[in-house]
Amino acid sequence: HVEWEYFPRKDEIKFTITTTNTESWTGIGFSDDQKMSQTDAVLGWVEKSGRHFLMDTWIGGYTSPLLDTSQDIYNKTGRIENGATILSFVRKRTSADPRDYSFTDEKCYYMMFPVKGGIFNPVNKKIRKHQAIPNISAQRICIRSCGAGEEITTTPEPPRIGYNVAIKLIQLGQNYQAPAPGSPDFDLLANTVSDGFNRALVKIPGFYKMSVKEFQQESDNVIAKLSLELDEAKLERGRSLEDSQESVVQVLN
């Protein structure tokens, strides 16, 4: 089942998802028409080791969910307790991300709950199709603004070091053109690039995330402009910034 709390002072919503199917992924989806296609979804799981994972996704059709370029969920938690997987996250009620549905005082959405998701791969973060049809609310759910209330206590993010990285993409096909931001082709290529580099860059001490900012066309080549973030406190003790930058280059090469 799913529970949610609204915190008006910061206009945030905290969702808590509970399922007894601990071997599969779970989550929650927001739909404008009770159909799986064109659904804003947050999916995740908890491994047997206790490590949890949550991702902000968009389901464009009856295919695998696409990871949002902008991950607009935070204060993520996960655990297995009394034979149940319990996941929680916080998101803003409204969002500037076109892949996130915004709850407003006028706009409400149907909610989807995957009672029994499919198998998940904790390494590459890929998921299989759900094993049971998700439950869908019979009516639209409204989360409207109200007066001041209690705030969620948040943990300040650690200081981070940022790098701008440009990568030439090859073997994209003859006459391939850089996709426009916001297009399905952009999301597909951005997800592919981000997923590949995020898996490679976990070798770097303090790695936080790599995200795609844009694609540029240069003659017959497509250049990916990326943003790399490292947690400063987790960098190896005594390691200089130049050494870290050299490691980044080695991994990318």
From TrEMBL:
This is DOMON domain-containing protein. It holds the Pfam family DOMON. It comes from Homalodisca liturata. Residues 1-117 form the DOMON domain.
